[in-house]
Amino acid sequence: MSFSGVEFAFFFPLVFLLYWVLPRRAPLQNAFLLLASYFFYYSWSPRFLALLVLSTAVDYGVGRALGRWRDAPPRRRLALAASLLFNLGVLAYFKYAGFFAESLNRLLTTVGLGAPLPVLHLLLPLGISFYTFQKLAYIIDVYYERLEPCRSPLQFATFVAFFPQLIAGPIVRGSELLPQLAEPRRLDAQKLGAGAGIFFLGFIKKAYIADYLGQWVVDPVFAHPDVYGTAGHWVALLGYAIQVFCDFSGYSEMAIGCGRLLGIELPVNFNYPFFSKGMLEMWRRWHITLNTWLFDYIYGPLTTGQGFFRGRLRLGFVVVFLASGLWHGARWTFLLWGLLHGLALVVQFQWGQLYKGLCRRDRVWVARRKSTAYAAAAWTITQLFFLATLVPFRAPTLAQAGAFARALLSAPAGRLLPLEAPPLRNLNLLVCLAFFVGYHLLERPRAQAVRARLWALPSPLRGAAIGLAIAYLLLFVPISSGTFIYAQF
Length: 489
Hints:
Blueprint: H1 6-21, H2 26-44, H3 49-68, H4 73-110, H5 128-143, H6 153-161, H7 163-166, H8 174-182, H9 189-223, H10 230-261, H11 279-285, H12 288-304, H13 313-328, H14 332-361, H15 364-369, H16 372-388, H17 390-394, H18 398-409, H19 423-441, H20 448-455, H21 459-476
């Protein structure tokens, strides 16, 4: 069952209706949400529902033990270690066992020792990377007494399995969601309107823009790169940047919308990342909940602790983004992607240090940094780097990533663009691009007045415009029920 699929159009209205018919009592609401969430997960991944329930029980028990053993540090460390071993062990078994066995076998074969390890090809439990990180954040916060352990097993199970964000985030902290689940939720007209609006926006981004670009621009070139020339490769890469953004931010917005419709607020996961003028800013705007998790629970403890990494801020960037690459999947291309972004943050850090020295010596450098030309150059470099590193992110192997990267610079003559279709398809692609650009432009400060005037139009006129947009999309851009890109992680 996908947010953009037909089944969800029947599932969610029924859940919404029954949820608000129930008495306004937190235990009843949580029990219903938990049943709905388990049904939602079962429709995706029946065989792994038991794993989700088991992992929930383990961390509920660990959290309660940490609460009881406040004055017994050895026991607390043992409980924390048990949670880390269980969660990371399960994640490593399902996600990385085959990858490491295959890599080791390849290495042993290269040196003439054969391939003695069996390679496991395991089906990945859906959403395991997301709910594992969510539970680990809870356990670590309880261990350091930043969060009180949850006493209610029902409340904790609902926190772990809440279906809008279960499959692909946002990664919610216990301090954000558990207090909301502890209180009864009540109907709020403003929240309902905001929830429906952001869900509709996310739905358009995923079901129409991301899926349409993927089908007609991105997939054809990546599947048959030898057919297309350099321009075709650049179009496909730009299309993929828009696709992955609209797919993932669309999911996040649909999740936030569903949460609001059920009286629950989920954290923002994207904040117009294509406005970024530096890679650090980019990662503060893109997949916000994952990156804050990585910096709070890996980078901070590493660089401020007492071990080897203390004070080694640059090396910490590399470690964090190697972990991010590995989190995204068991492929060398993801590790390369993570390494490139870690090194980019190191370069930006060094440049910042150098520029501060220049500013201290001569104030003219301060004015230059505030200039339009500097901002334009910073934005261009950031976006080109982000775009280029999507090649290993999208390509399944290093060899294919290298071939695609070379084709961006020089490729044999081939098709110019993968758009040799009826004019309607090209029109739809232009509509997708116009929506993407307009979505960003309307957020600029200078466009606030324009947006205010649009929303100030008479309700019938706004309703007619929205209705025409929906009719156009339904008639000319078929809805896809494909899975979300980040559901594979």
